[in-house]
Amino acid sequence: MERINFKMLKVSILILGIMLSFPLFSQTESMGDMFELAKLKSGMKNRRISSTDPTGGNRDHLEPFKPGEKRTIAEIKGTGVINHIWITIAPPPGELSRNDIIIRMYWDGNDYPSVESPIGPFFGQGWDERYNYASLPLSAGPEEGTGLSSYFAMPFEKGARIEIENQTDKTINAFYFYVDYLEMAELPEGMGRFHAWYNHSLSKALPEGETEWALTGEWKPNTRLDRNYVFIETKGKGHFVGINYYVHSPTPMWYGEGDDMWFIDGEKTPSLIGTGTEDFFNTSWCPKEPFSHPHFGYPRVNNDIGWLGRTHVYRFFINDPIFFETEVKGTIETGHNNNLTLDLATVAYWYQDSAVKLPPAPSKEARKPKPFINHMDMHRWRDAWRKAKGNDPQLWGNE
């Protein structure tokens, strides 16, 4: 039994190295020993493209670019692996929405992106907000989530290109960045292509209403899996490695009874089914407290009544990727049987054998953040409830 466990441990560590730390370790070396850091490597050259001032001055940022403008910030020829990206932007959130600045990445000369997402959600910043966020492959901050970093390994064989589009209605005054990569003669065998896809949806309650926890109606099973929220759908061979999940709940009711369900390699019935949203993200009992772990956490939680408001939760499948041979569709319920109206956005991250075209991206209007529900809205709800109850002058609120 000990030999089997040891082999499984080495496989898990190897997967971590391939996905996140390839530049430091080869596919055949164990990652469990810090002495590996001292091993000298050959056949690779460090390269960097950055926003440094070419005159030698201190204007180390791109010149302002206007609403609607696109810019290629990195165009790389040949073969290599991007192993680090850092970005910061001015003005900051609140003045310039990172939900409307789009990052796209193109691999191997393709004219379509295999990474497409608003830049904030890609790096772990939901809506138009700023807050510190730290995971193993991605981080935001300090200062208050404005330094955006990625350590995902992003291999390419026939070139790479990174594009930024300003879909805001304001000018980006300053855009600072590093793109660090390794240049090499050829990629090791079996290196997949990195993908990331942003999706967004305002889910629909059932005709009988938002019956969560059977408070307003009978609890019924989910027989319509096609109504689940989809966060990854792709064809090819690969493995899923992570998700940033942004949920805005317009009700104080717990939003997270929904189970994750995975349809792998053409399945009609999901082979992987979870037990609840918080369980999928390695947490428990309807949490609403900040928590950070390299693989999962809650960097932003609502501070409203119950679970009303915005929550950001993430999970990276470092030791436990979800593998697929021909296709995968990853979904999650919105409420225990898709019975809640939720404003959901996700960024899914995965590798597959070739760089493929992503599903269509949500439009600027479709992904526009919903406004907060506040105390005045609640008072209007109370007024409607009082009138529905006969408007007795001493109605309390939980009759």
UniProtKB/TrEMBL annotation:
Pfam families per record: DUF2961
Source organism, top-level taxon: Bacteria
Name under which the protein is recorded: DUF2961 domain-containing protein
Organism: Proteiniphilum saccharofermentans
